[in-house]
Amino acid sequence: MTNFRNILGCAAILAAAGAPSALADIILFDIIGRSGPGLRVDNENHVASGTGSGGEVGPGISFDTITKVLIINAAWGSANGFTDLTGNVTIAHIHQAANALFTSNGPVIVDLDGATPGFNNSATSGGWTNTQVLLNASQEAALFNGFLYLNIHTVVNRPGEIRGNLVAIPTPGAAALLGVAGLVAMRRRRA
User: Fold this and answer.
1) Secondary structure of the chain: what % helix, strand, coil (to 5)?
2) Distance, CA of 30 to CA of 15 (rounded, Å)
3) What is the residue range of 38's domain?
4) Are 122 and 129 in contact (CB under 8 A)?
């Protein structure tokens, strides 16, 4: 009976700590690069000019593990609280790098410009508002492995002006989960 109570107690603690469950199907993402957080010129892996910047806005970036839809709310430009690009966006993409290093480049897997719902190409107030992208299984795996990055291109910076990798945000319960596991292990050693 003691073991059963311990199991129930641990389960209750893990549930309260926000441990992942079958119901937890929305994963949040940050934009991060080799030079820091957000969409930045110095996150590009080539020499880019300008001082443009951007990042998540509103509800940010999320992925639904049930529907396989990535929702992007990110922006750039002074009207959105960032700095302006050198000109309007000519093209914007999600690329898939060969690995999770911020210095790795890769091919375009999704175009996020032109007729993309929620896209605004303005240099001063551009971005994506609730832009939805359906990912296949391979792209989902790449997303969770940190291989996907956003790249925004302008006339002045054709290879890309600002860039940032999509990196999953650990759930608040993840640290607590590790702490609880350590406490359980310590308790078992003492018993």
Assistant:
1) 25, 35, 40
2) 24
3) 24-190
4) no
Write out pLDDT tens, residues 4-13: 333 333 333 3
Task: Give the dihedral sign, CA 169/125/92/82.
Answer: negative
Cβ atoms of residues 154 and 85 within 8 Å: yes
Task: Report the domain count for the chain.
Answer: 1
107-133: pLDDT as tens digits: 999 999 988 999 999 999 999 999 999
For residues 85 and 120, the answer to whether their CB atoms sit within 8 Å is: no
- Short-list 52, 58, 59, CA closest to 38: 52
Look at the pTM and tell me if it is higher than 0.85. Answer: no
Residue 10 located in a structural domain: no
- Rounded Cα distance, 128 and 62, in Å: 13
End-to-end CA distance of the chain: 15
5 within domain boundaries: no
21-34: average pLDDT: 82
Q: Please give the structure tokens belonging to residue 153.
A: 């291109």
CA distance 155 to 183: 56
- d(CA 140, CA 165) in angstroms, rounded, equals 14
Q: Is 110 part of any domain?
A: yes
Close Cβ partners of 29 (under 8 Å, ≥ 6 residues apart) = 60, 61, 62, 63, 143, 166, 167, 168, 169
**Does residue 15 fall inside a structural domain?**
no
